[in-house]
Design brief:
This protein is mostly helical. 76% of the residues lie in helices and 0% in strands. It has three helices and no strands. Helix 1 packs antiparallel against helix 2. The two termini are 25 Å apart.
């Protein structure tokens, strides 16, 4: 699953760069956010529950834990 998360992160980052070049700033920010989300999920590994990592849990880990 982790290689898939990294693949998604790369894809979303590429999309963000494309949208930024097209001056679609709000869409670029959205794609960049999800690129970061997928990359952080990959860094954390598999989630402890079948539902996956929720945004709040990732934020807690990377923002409040460090």
């Amino acid at each position: 699953m982790l290689p898939e998360r990294l693949r998604l992160a790369r894809q979303y980052l590429d999309d963000a760069q494309y949208l930024l070049a097209a001056d679609r700033l709000a869409s670029a920010v959205s794609r960049a956010y999800y690129a970061a989300y997928q990359a952080m999920w990959a860094a954390l590994g598999d989630a402890p529950c079948a539902e996956g990592w929720r945004h709040g849990a990732i934020i807690n880990h990377f923002v409040r834990s460090y």
